[in-house]
Amino acid sequence: MTSHLPSTGAALAETGDLDALMASARQIRDAAWGRRITYSRKAFVPLTNMCRDTCGYCTFVKHPSSPEARIMTPEQVLAEARRGEREGCKELLFSLGEKPELRYEAARKGLERLGYSRLTDYLRDMCELVLRETSLLPHVNAGTLTDEEIDVLKPVSASMGMMLETVSRRLTRKGQPHHACPDKTPVQRLRTLERAGEKRVPFTTGLLIGIGETWEERIEALHAINAAHARHGHVQEVIIQNFQRKPDIEMANHPEPGLEDMLRTIAAARVILSPEISLQAPPNLSARHIAYLDAGINDWGGISPVTIDFINPQHDWPEIRSLARSCEAAGFELRERLTVYPRYLTGNAGFINPSVRTRALGMAGGTGLAREQRHIGETA
Ligand SMILES: O=c1nc2n(C[C@H](O)[C@H](O)[C@H](O)CO)c3cc(O)ccc3cc-2c(=O)[nH]1
Ligand SMILES: C[C@H]1O[C@@H](n2cnc3c(N)ncnc32)[C@H](O)[C@@H]1O
Ligand code: MET
Ligand code: SF4
Fold first, then answer.
1. pTM, full prediction
2. Ligand 1 centre from 172 Cα, in Å?
3. 235 φψ region: left (φ > 0), alpha (ψ -120 to 50), beta (else)
4. In whole angstroms, what is the distance from residue 181 CA to residue 145 CA?
5. Which of 59, 98, 164 to mutate for ligand 4's pocket (most ligand atoms within 8 Å of CB)?
6. Where are the alpha helices (DSSP H) in 101-248?
7. What is the number of domains present in the chain?
8. How far is the CA of 362 from the centre of ligand 2 (A)?
9. Does pLDDT of 4 surpass 70?
10. CA of 91, closest atom in ligand 1
11. Which tens digit of pLDDT belongs to each residue from 340-351?
12. Is residue 95 included in any domain, yes or no?
């Protein structure tokens, strides 16, 4: 699993010839993934919106003094899961603030009322609840994790993820989006990415585009992800996410990245990353998202038929049928996938708890994608 043409990718990216870069990216995508574009039908559970970090772009986080600050109860978690189940979801995405109990008394009290002293332990039990009471596969997006936290969460999840965001240490300085965010220092993010690989967790990661990083920093981040994958084989997908401006964030006046910037970054990612790594960009954060297909993506990520995108609440999910139609018009077929990619189910022992694996294998037939993706996994 060596890096695919990294120098060519960087060179093409540097020359400014966007068309040539996108053509290379498309070629790699077509060879590895064909003309099938996937998504995961998911229910979204924002377990808590309290967080010890205060990223300048985040509208999800709420200070404990806010009336909107909350920790969902097990009953609420289960209600969301059941709603998702009824709508045919297969994934339950836990997305949450990071270690709020280390910073806020209110978070400690809230967890205590639920019988916990640490958010990760509560998350573990909620994953277990979902596995016990529903047919869904938990995916955990809880940000930076320690070795021990990965050990706690791996047995109760099908896959995990954490956006690397950026490798820029500059962005942790005063006045920058990651200032005073202990979980967003590149060294911590890179460590989590590495540990997830050592511990063989099917892993989702990615870059947040347009938060002040340079082009070189994006390329460096992509190489870092690819290098971790070359060591451990755990990176199942990489998300290229565009920053969204909102009125209620520190970065309310920061410009959003343009379409061309996204296309160039997506294409560079496809050229740099190993071909078997799925390349994802969100369908709800740009009116022109169909153009991402020309830059080499093969996946739209999670789409929820039951809840809003809590991270970008002002942007509705596309209706799945209408997304299918626009993919078709562009020459692609939209297909459902599971949160965990087939190569971690069929080969590579040790990447997933055997009972979760059995459940996922039972569901894989329903997506209709099992055979094709398995093929990709085997040839990679
Ligand atoms: O709805 C969202 N889903 C996000 N997802 C979920 C993703 O869309 C799907 O659930 C995965 O593709 C499942 O494999 C993430 C998952 C991660 O592991 C890491 C980061 C993200 C980021 C987002 C996000 O911003 N919005
Ligand atoms: C779950 C992921 O959502 C992303 N995220 C957080 N805030 C924003 C925003 N304003 N625009 C786009 N993406 C955002 C981060 O990359 C985080 O890791
Ligand atoms: C709501 S943000 C997603 C989870 C985590 N707090 C992170 O930033 O990675
Ligand atoms: S992006 Fe994640 S880590 Fe940053 S403030 Fe929001 S919830 Fe916390």
1. 0.94
2. 23
3. beta
4. 14
5. 98
6. 105-114, 119-133, 147-153, 186-198, 215-232
7. 1
8. 32
9. no
10. 10
11. 999 999 876 799
12. yes
Closest atom of ligand 3 to 165 CA is 9
Q: How far is CA 183 from CA 42, 61, 91, 368, in A?
A: 26, 14, 25, 38
Which secondary structure element, helix H or strand E, spans residue 204, and what is its range? strand 203-209
Which ligand 3 atom is the nearest neighbour of the CA of 163?
9
Instruction: Identify the nearest ligand to the CA of 339 by its number.
Output: 1
- How much is the ipTM here? 0.97
Q: Percentage of the chain surpassing pLDDT 70?
A: 92
Nearest bound ligand to the CA of residue 189? 3
CA 137 to centroid of ligand 1, rounded, Å: 14
Which one-letter amino acid corresponds to residue 72?
A: M
Domain assignment of residue 1, yes or no: no
Q: What is the CATH number of the domain that holds 59?
A: 3.20.20.70
Check pocket membership of 211 for ligand 4, CB cut-off 6 A. Answer: no
User: What mean pLDDT do residues 113-117 have?
Assistant: 98
pLDDT, one tens digit per residue, over 152-165 is 999 999 999 999 99
Locate tokens 């002040």: which residue?
212
CB atoms within 10 A of CB 329: 9
Closest residue to atom 6 of ligand 3, CA basis:
97
Ligand 4 in reach of 285 Cβ (< 6 A): no
- Nearest atom within ligand 4 for CA of residue 96: 7
79 pLDDT higher than 70: yes
Q: How far apart are CA 356 and CA 194, in angstroms?
A: 23
CB 370 within 8 A of CB 342: yes
Domain limits at 185? Answer: 6-379
